[in-house]
Amino acid sequence: MPKLFILAAISFAVYYFFFRENSPKNDTKQTSIPETTETVETTSPAVITAAESTEAVARPVATQPAKKYTESEKLTIKSLYTKAKLAFKEADLITAKENTEQVLKLLNENSSDWKNAAELLGRINIAIFTTGYMSPDKTIHTVKRGDSLDKIAKQYHTTLKALQNLNGIPPTSSTIRLGQSITAFKGNWSIKISKSKYRLYLYNNSKLFKFYNVGTGRNNKTPEGTFEVADKIKEPTWEYNGKKYAFGSKENVLGTRWMKLRATGVTPDYQGYGIHGTWAPQSIGKMSSNGCIRMKNEDVEELYSILPKYSDTNGLLTSVTIEK
For site-directed labelling of 131, which of 51, 63, 166, 212 has its Cα 20 to 30 A away? Predict the structure, then answer.
């Protein structure tokens, strides 16, 4: 595929992925009532109950001792990062990804250089995920009798929307033909959330895919432990004091997406916690919720589009670890 075409495809895909579903009517900001730690309904329409709020509180971000680099390490980091940026500009995404991953291995996470490199890695991975650029993370599936787009999505732990985007299938269609070649991104997703750093790390095959800045619970209310993404709800309704607030209303604090978290292993059976959007982006990077993980709407929409939704019987639910 000519590089010029790939560059154009990457630019369009990233624009489509980030902005297509954002609606101007939902620009209303709400800071007075955060989400709840009570029951979350998963029936349609989705209704999520919430408690009374207090103000968001900023908490110092955890730091590590500054790492001192040798001159040789500095030169290596600079060279790899320069090569990664150039490769990304030229649509050589595999080289860009490999060089950026090498840079991250050499850097202290609390440095601005790590943040810049991790942000670049996220852009590279999203470009691979949303365009026809082939990589080791993708496969070509030949449609056989009995296949459906939903079945193929489950097989490769990806989403219906991702398959539609990659294969030029309209969002309103799931039609495929016998013998058709379907490009699929092979997902093996997991999430780690650092409360002290206000970051959500998305991994594929245990390798960093992208990180997002988040808000956490006031007074350390966000529970720690292991969880899984048990449900996903688009444009959720929110219930407070017996009253339901439709998606898009100024009282609805949940933003554009909700992903329910369910405790696993020895983690206590916490109820009502999840990952969701917010109409108050200024609350990100603060202890701003009643326990849930808050993300900017555009970020939670992206994450929602990446993570598949499966039932218990699939055994492929995305694992989530929440740490201090």
Answer: 212
